[in-house]
Amino acid sequence: MIMINSFYGTKFTTTQAFDAKGRRQVVSVVKVEPLVVTQVKTLDRDGYWGLKVGIGQKSVKRGAKKAKGPRFLREIKLESEPELKPGDLVPVDAVLKPQDKVKVTGISLGRGFAGVMKRHGFAGGPKTHGQSDRARAPGSIGMRTDPGRVWKGKKMAGHYGAATVTVKNCQVVSVSEADNLLTLTGTVPGFRKGLLKLTKI
Question: Which UniProt key words apply to this protein (predicted)?
């Protein structure tokens, strides 16, 4: 038995499905190809047990031939010595089953430099009564001579998104080993084809 607590996949799409009671729910479909073991971390050599795995395949249209291989390389830590060796495949159904609860970690959509209304949900200023250029402005950012500075953490315009986000308590709805697709309840962070880490809770 493979004692692995997490699995990697790529975001495929977001759609909807109906549960056993006929209620519609949002579901996310994750592409979960078998993980390829590229290296085994040992307690003697590395100080811990673990697996280095390859996820997906690099595009054959891009890069030099010598650069071909897994699209992503990630490491999974283990509590005991694995019964796997380099070259072995780890299918998704060996780790995750329907009804399992998982937390999903990914990189959120990057929105670049955003204003306070988009980034923090500010209401903006009045659009009439003499206002001409304050509709999307942040308003006052400070007081007077004391404190004489802007407080740290003040909500202002800046880079928004492209951050590591974890969504908890997603439930596995179905696992299709033939299509390499896994369905989860709710939405997951990131863009299509973005890497996701699924960890059993």
Answer: Ribonucleoprotein, Ribosomal protein, RNA-binding, rRNA-binding
Q: Is 40 helix (H, G, I), strand (E, B) or coil?
A: strand
**Domains held by the chain: number:** 1
Whether the CB-CB separation of 197 and 5 falls below 8 Å is answered with: no
Output DSSP code: residue 96.
-
Tell me: pLDDT of 173 over 70. Answer: yes
Q: Note down the domain range covering 91.
A: 6-60+68-112+157-200
Question: Helices marked H in 52-127 — which ranges?
Answer: 116-120
For the chain, the residue count is: 201
pLDDT score of 66:
62
* CB atoms inside a 10 Å sphere around CB 9: 27
73-114 per-position pLDDT tens digit:
999 999 999 899 999 999 999 999 999 999 999 999 999 999
Using an 8 Å Cβ cutoff, are 5 and 186 in contact?
Answer: no
Q: How far apart are CA 199 and CA 201, in angstroms?
A: 6
Residue 98 Cα to chain centre, angstroms: 20
145: in domain: no
DSSP helix/strand/coil, 200: strand
